[in-house]
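agent> step 3/5: call structure_predict on target 'LysR family transcriptional regulator' (Phenylobacterium glaciei).
agent> reason: downstream docking stage needs a structural representation; sequence fetched in step 2, passing through unchanged.
tool.input:
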Amino acid sequence: MSDPLATLPLSAIRVFEAAARLGSFTRAAAELNITQAAVSWQVKALEQRLDQPLFRRLPREVVLTPSGERLARAASEAVTVLRAALSDLTDTGEGVLAITTLQSLATVWLAPRLGAFQLAHPQIAVRLEASGRVVDLTREDMDVAIRSGSGEWPGLASHYLFSADGAPLCTPQMARDLNLTEPRDLLKAPLIGLASEWDAWFAAAGVQAPSIEGTPRLAADAQSLEVAAALAGHGVALGSPVLFGADIAQGRLVCPFDARISFGNGYWLVYPADRRRAAKITAFRDWLLAQVAP
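tool.output (status=ok):
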């Protein structure tokens, strides 16, 4: 039995994958730097080889047929695997490692440590993106991510780093001024953060309290900003004792009570599973896991 791939030019599969992914011959032509006519010709030739239509041509768009949808899924996976293999073959550890992560984790925990990574691997430059946006690592120009969640993302390898728990954090002076001896004492404290999170923390601490809706004086979209306000002496914030471990160790912050709430299932290092052998990714993975080892 002959191999059906033997009769299909790789260029036609590449053009079809782009057109299927973008839903447009025009956009596929722009991405591949060829003419729209060339895209149309390649797709038509592929349809003739397979003896069935792959797209329905509409006035301003193209839509995959059921056969086209099946081939598009396989073509997308094949192109992703091929790109990863080529990257691994040409990756000698030189170049740029692009990391995406949450703003608070980037600012407070990762950035101060990256100098040590670059000293250990001077041939690798680092580009760090701090954002709440979840980047699609299989499509976008990023190598690895550190994100919170369950650790289960299709197509990605994941390594658990540490918990995403939150506990009260404040300056030692604030703790003395408030005479914090038991969790209930925080009911009279100037609180920083979302009321719903403080309600959850009081419940975890066993404090039967009415909702504190409206009580917190400041809420921000990044944990680092809320804890920065606590560091400035403006109140008590809910923050990660792991992320702000250096401030606690150096006496700038204290964590007066052990009760914690979960901000998620933990922080994870993730990257495309088919790029696990890329030199710059393995170097960063091994270094990062050593940083969080007990």
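agent> step 4/5: record observation. The chain has three domains: 4-89, 92-155+267-292, 165-262.
agent> proceeding.
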